[in-house]
Amino acid sequence: MPLVLEYTLVFTTVLALVALGGMFSERSGVINLGLEGIMVIGALAGAIVTSVLSKANCPNFLNVIVSIIASMISGWLFSMLLGIACIKFKADQTITGTALNIMSTALAVVIARMYTKTPSSQVDYTRQIYMFSYDGNVGIFLIFMLVATFASYVFLFKTSGGLRLMSCGEHPQAADSVGINVYKERYLGVSISGILGGLGGFAYIVQSAGQWDFKYGVTGFGFLALAVMIFGQWKPIKILLAALVFGLCQTVAIIYSGTLGIPQFVYKMLPYIVCMIVLVLTSKKSRAPKAEGQPYDQGKR
Amino acid sequence: MNSTFKDKIKSVFSNLRNRIRDFFVKGKQEKSGLQKFLTTDAFKNFLSSVICVIIGLLVGIIVIVIVNAPNSAEAIASILKGGFNAPKWQRGVGSVLVNAIPLLLCSLSIIFAYKCGLFNIGAPGQYVIGAMFAFLGAFFLKAPWYVCLILSAIGGALWGIIPGFFKAFLSVNEVITSIMFNWIGLYLLNFVAGPEAGIMYNENLAECFILPKSSLLPTLGFDKMLSGYKYVTVAFYIAIILAIVVRIILNKTKFGYEIKATGNNKDAAKYAGMNYKRNLIITMAISGALAGIAAGCFYLTGYEVYSATKQTSLPAMGFNGIAAAFLGCLNPIGSIFSSLLITHINVGGGYLDTTYYSKEIGDLISSLIIYLCAFSLFIRLTITKIQNRKKELAEANNATPEKNPDVKEEKVGEKECH
């Protein structure tokens, strides 16, 4: 496979998974700015579990499944910090999300160092078992991403459960008045974002390298995923296409970095600049879920 | 001494004594001053911040014990001692002050924008662009320190105006714009200060050159006071003065009133004839300038030499500014104390024994504090509830069911502290 295509698929997979997670959270009315942090925690759990299992000579098949489940569960647990604060205690969602991002990197370094028992926070793992081919970069996360995209499309727009979830992000008071439990739906939205975010974080580090130093977090991918979500208009299929565009940008930034006589920093900025241009172009018709960011208080209608 | 003067003094003293007694001892009908003070918003804010810090520290201590129990006593001590781990106390105080000054300025930046209803998560980006302008001033223009400082403020302001402009005219959310421009700013600085541009890059040490003497901030006698510790500078006064100025602008001027009105209800502010777009952009410019000058006040001391190759993620200063701002209850004067406290903990984290612990435990505690600050509304409601219950109990005991008109019940919908 040509390298450009391979890298594009890798980044698209990650961005689409995480952006889908963010979409569920925002559709239920909770802004999840902590996606970056959820990715870091999911990546950490997956990396440590897969590293432990490889040392214990666990069969590859089991190793892959258990590690992926570990990354999802840890992402979910971490997202519940946001859920409990913002849904039960009606805390400010932006501040809580930011706090989670800072907390995740610090926590990841502390835990990674506990695991490695050395002053470095770098965790080694075998990445080949996740890939389709031994020396390839595209792994089974691609399947997860495709399944997640189409499943969320069906769930959101074709089932009553999805419509219930979306109603809580548009007009929670109205949703409550017809018997929908707004708190429950919002917990569901945040939970899905935690699960997909954790998986996306793990997908990112496994497909990028055979070891990861957790002091770098996930290098801003969670924020890019937020931009992908906005560009994708909070709709699954559009998010997939948006992720493809951003994945291509990121690939160009990495592969062609330093060539063509353009300084390296321009390439590094490229995804963010494209993101800004896209946001400006789509801002006029962009329509976020109406009630996102507002805590729902049952006693106040 | 004539008798009228004596009488005057006597009356002053008795007045004072009465006031002190009134403050502590409950009168027959009304509440004492102490009790009134305990129900004020200011006290509740203070108490909720203290609770946040205590819980944050407790969780930090638990993490320390989990990481390595046998050495935990020493580690907890070094976190609590902060800068005083240094062999000389002057050094310790100095290192806390050097780091607290830019933190205070960053938190002022967050506060200023937040009062206008904007969450300036772009402070790290404005901080790095401020640093870039300061470096350009120092190395390129060979400018004196005050010009470099002004340049850093201008740089931060420019980087702050961008999200303001995007929000005002293109209605793009300022949070997402700020996040993108944080990274763009970081790569821009790393280009200018790194090997690619090569104007200020020292290849042997893989960092910037040492700043020229004329660009370093003057110490104004602080070095003598702190026995030769030369990094505490005029920045100290600048930060304190700016904190007071921000408080005055917010509370005493027409512009500050308009900002707060916009923050509380932007549609009402528009309807009242305030220029929303202009106020928004000016607010972001001032907020950015504060974050930019923070970088100037940090790097122009010479305390740390910037390394473009090592700094691959955004500096923590801007994010910690959010912690300081909320811990200080979004009060410029309160944030002076909160930034000192957070720096104290972070500096203490740096003294942890790195064979067992990572210095990130300090960051972990400050992020926990931000997280808990998000609960402050809940904490303050609980305090009010406990106080009301006590009052009810006291009234039941006295069997004098007189209602007190002073006691205000906190509203559930109240969004922030004042």
Lay out the secondary structure.
The complex is a heterodimer of chains A (301) and B (418).
Chain A: H1 3-27, H2 35-55, H3 60-88, H4 93-116, E1 122-124, H5 141-158, H6 160-170, H7 172-177, H8 182-208, E2 211-213, H9 221-231, H10 236-255, H11 264-282
Antiparallel strand pairs in A: 1-2
Helix pairs in contact in A: 1-5, 1-8, 1-9, 1-10, 2-3, 2-4, 2-8, 2-9, 3-4, 3-8, 5-6, 5-10, 6-8, 9-10, 9-11, 10-11
Chain B: H1 3-24, H2 33-38, H3 41-67, H4 72-81, H5 89-115, H6 123-140, H7 145-170, H8 174-193, E1 201-202, E2 207-208, H9 222-225, H10 235-252, H11 254-264, H12 266-271, H13 276-299, H14 316-327, H15 332-350, H16 360-373, H17 376-398
Antiparallel strand pairs in B: 1-2
Brief summary of the model shown:
Chain A has 301 residues and is mainly α. Chain A has helices at residues 3-27, 35-55, 60-88, 93-116, 141-158, 160-170, 172-177, 182-208, 221-231, 236-255, 264-282, and strands at 122-124, 211-213. In chain A, helix 2 (35-55) runs parallel beside helix 4.
Describe this structure as you would to a colleague.
The complex is a heterodimer of chains A (301) and B (418). Chain A is mainly alpha-helical and 301 residues long. Chain A has a single domain (3-282), classed as Orthogonal Bundle (ABC transporter involved in vitamin B12 uptake, BtuC), CATH 1.10.3470. Helix content of chain A is 70%, strand content 2%. Chain A has helices spanning 3-27, 35-55, 60-88, 93-116, 141-158, 160-170, 172-177, 182-208, 221-231, 236-255, 264-282; strands at residues 122-124, 211-213. Chain A has a two-stranded antiparallel sheet. Chain B has 418 residues and is an all-alpha fold. Chain B has a domain at 86-331: ABC transporter involved in vitamin B12 uptake, BtuC (Orthogonal Bundle), CATH 1.10.3470. A two-stranded antiparallel ribbon of chain B has the order 1-2. Classes of the chains: A mainly alpha (301), B mainly alpha (418). At the A-B interface, helix 4, helix 9 and helix 11 of A face helix 8, helix 14 and helix 16 of B.
